[in-house]
UniProtKB/TrEMBL annotation:
One of its GO terms (biological process) is cell division. Signal peptide: none annotated. Its EC number is 2.4.99.28. One of its GO terms (molecular function) is peptidoglycan glycosyltransferase activity. The gene is ftsW. This is peptidoglycan glycosyltransferase. It is found in: Membrane. InterPro entries: FtsW/RodA. It comes from Glaucocystis sp. BBH. It is a multi-pass membrane protein. Pfam families: FTSW_RODA_SPOVE. It comes from the Eukaryota. Keywords: Cell shape, Glycosyltransferase, Membrane, Peptidoglycan synthesis, Plastid, Transferase, Transmembrane, Transmembrane helix.
């Protein structure tokens, strides 16, 4: 009975609880309904104001962005007009009469064109199989080389049309820009690394190598500085020598010992041609030797290269493999070669045969006779370049001409020395032969600077005859005037 009474009492309490909370829930629902109705009524009043405020904000932002866009367009217009103004001023100063070429300028132009065509043929032969296997296009490397070559030809055309004096006026800015880019490549997140060397800046699918593009700027700045060395103050001398040393240091930090060596040798020879004191030349030799020793000591792979250069057979499948395969390629060429396109070492036996070791493939395909003709070609090019330098009265132009010749010819000889085992294995590209757009542009610019100096300093041939005829006509007119004055006076 007690249990039944307890259950009845619980049931009553539960019913009372439900009644109370049911009433509360109904009151809350009524209140919420009233709040919703009030909110909707209020929203109907506020909505136009909110929308108006919203549209005002959008309008403000639109006007703000409109001002920014107008400002940007004004700046773009200003810079475009400035650039066009500079171009028009440059065009006024440009010597467009390219027919005024000397015998040496024409010869150097023909030699450069022949060198480029020969290089494209050799590169097509050396890279076809590799490019077919890696990229499914046999002419992949040639197409990219032609794209870079088009840019190089445009640069060459501009240089050949520009007087050297105009180039020297702006050379300081370009040189400092190149120096900054060289140090930018050493920054880990910006510089692009290949095989442990951080020498490139990647822009899209193209790799920019500042050290290569710096070569013509290096020659121009060396010639400009050492050509007026006696006129420079001690402060200016110290400033430029410091920048030259920083350039070589930046290249060593990449690391790129081969290019640093080439820069150092060019500096020494240009200084020698400019008549710099022998104490300075001796100091540069000692400093270069010390820098080279320190660089080799700090880099383990450079030590190994030097050791296995002396005897590559100690490690024929490791450090000595590349040199051994290069020697195999040169030896396979024998007297007359296997024929263009018939090299066997390019079938993935010789690494990087389309760049640093392309001479080995060239030697295999054309043989000893072909290599001999190429060396004679380089010697003839050197002869005409030195003729231009000798006929130049301006010391700055003389130094620049020698520097351009050294960059092209000395780099070729160094590449041949590396491929044949005469020099330690380093990354010297063969000018106009090796695959690489930066090197091709730099070589074309160097060659065009030399041609421009020849145009300015060695008039000869039809242009000289025409100049003589004009001078003779002026003299005849002067004689006629003198005779007429005498008759009138008498």
């Amino acid at each position: 009975m007690r249990l039944k009474e307890k259950l009845i009492s619980l049931d009553r309490r539960w019913n009372e609880f439900l009644k109370i909370w049911g009433v509360i829930a109904i009151m809350i629902a009524i209140e919420l309904h009233e709040w919703v109705i009030t909110f909707l009524n209020t929203w109907a009043l506020i909505k136009p104001l909110i929308l108006l405020f919203y549209y005002e904000i959008i309008l403000e932002y639109f006007l703000f962005f409109k001002k920014i866009i107008i400002f940007i367009f004004k700046k773009i217009r200003f810079w475009v007009l400035t650039v066009l103004n500079i171009i028009f001023k440059w065009v006024k100063k440009v010597d467009f009469n390219i027919n005024k070429r000397s015998k040496y300028a024409q010869t150097l132009t023909y030699f450069t064109g022949l060198w480029v065509l020969l290089g494209l043929m050799v590169l097509a032969s050396a890279s076809y199989y590799t490019s077919r296997k890696k990229h499914n296009i046999g002419l992949y490397y040639i197409i990219r080389q032609l794209i870079w070559g088009f840019g190089g030809i445009l640069c060459s055309f501009c240089i050949i049309l520009s007087p050297i004096e105009n180039i020297l006026k702006t050379s300081d800015i370009y040189f400092l820009t190149g120096l900054v880019l060289i140090f930018i490549t050493t920054i880990p997140k910006i510089g692009y690394s290949i095989n442990g060397a951080r020498r490139w800046i990647k822009i899209g699918t193209f790799l920019i190598q500042p050290a290569e593009l710096m070569k013509p700027l290096w020659v121009i700045q060396l010639g400009k500085t050492f050509g007026q060395w006696e006129k420079l103050s001690i402060v200016n001398r110290f400033f430029w020598i410091t920048l030259f040393l920083l350039t070589i240091l930046g290249i060593l930090l990449q690391p790129n010992l081969s290019t640093a060596t080439l820069f150092g040798m060019t500096l020494w020879f240009v200084a020698l041609v400019s008549g710099i004191n022998w104490r300075f030349l001796l100091t540069t030799v000692i400093a270069g030797g010390v820098a080279g020793i320190i660089s080799i000591s700090c880099k383990e792979y450079q030590k190994r290269r030097l050791l296995f250069f002396l005897n590559p057979w100690k490690d024929p499948k490791g450090e000595g493999y590349q040199l051994i395969q290069s020697l195999y390629a040169i030896a396979s060429g024998q007297m007359f070669g296997t024929g263009l396109g018939w090299s066997r070492q390019k079938l993935f036996y010789l690494p990087i045969h389309e760049t640093d070791f392309i001479f080995a493939i060239f030697a295999e395909e054309v043989g000893f006779v072909g290599c001999l003709f190429f060396i004679l070609f380089l010697l003839t090019y050197t002869y005409f370049a030195l003729k231009v330098a000798r006929k130049t009265n301006n010391l700055q132009k003389k130094s620049i001409a020698v520097g351009c010749m050294l960059i092209l010819v000395m780099q070729s000889l160094l590449n041949m020395g590396v491929a044949s085992g005469v020099l330690p294995t380093t990354g010297f590209p063969l000018p106009f032969f090796s695959y690489g757009g930066n090197a091709l542009i730099a070589c074309l610019i160097n060659a065009s600077i030399l041609i421009r100096i020849a145009i300015e300093e060695t008039p000869h041939g039809p242009y000289l005859k025409a100049a003589k005829r004009r001078l003779l006509k002026k003299l005849i007119r002067l004689n006629k005037l003198k005779k007429s004055k005498r008759i009138l006076h008498n």
